[in-house]
Design brief:
Layout (H helix, E strand, L loop, with lengths): L9 H6 L8 E6 L2 E11 L10 E7 L1 E6 L5 E4 L3 E4 L5 E16 L20
Antiparallel strand pairs: 1-2, 2-7, 3-6, 3-7, 4-5, 4-7
Length: 123
């Protein structure tokens, strides 16, 4: 777990992420976790009924397909909030580095059982 009195270097943390779609927690504040993740390909359709999910693209391009809305494409430096309960599916044709923030304990695949369901892990 990151010490609350020490800075966190995002690039250094992302360099430790070795598997796609396997988010790693890098800090916690006020009950929210910031996770570093590398993505490529399509994720599963899912939602988070307990809260919003913030995506920040660090490197690459990420499209977030939304079940009942128009898809959103993000580039490096872009942010987007998927509102609670909205079904979504992140897609990245090439490797993309992303920060995700949501409430502590939220499962990355929501209530969908998948081989992409990640275990909580700090780096």
């Amino acid at each position: 777990m990151a010490r609350p009195d020490m800075p966190v270097n995002v690039a250094e943390k992302l360099s430790k992420v070795t598997e796609y779609w396997s988010p790693k927690t890098i800090l916690e504040a006020n009950g929210y976790e910031m996770k570093a993740v590398k993505v490529k390909g399509e994720f599963v359709w899912h939602d988070h009924p307990e809260g919003d999910e913030l995506f920040i693209v660090v490197k690459g391009e990420l499209t977030i397909d939304l079940r009942d809305r128009q898809s959103v494409t993000l580039g490096a430096g872009d942010m987007f909030v998927v509102p609670r309960g909205v079904q979504h599916r992140p897609v990245a044709p090439e490797e993309c580095e992303v920060l995700i923030m949501d409430a502590a304990g939220v499962v990355n695949t929501g209530g969908v059982a998948s081989e992409l369901t990640a275990q909580d892990e700090w780096i």
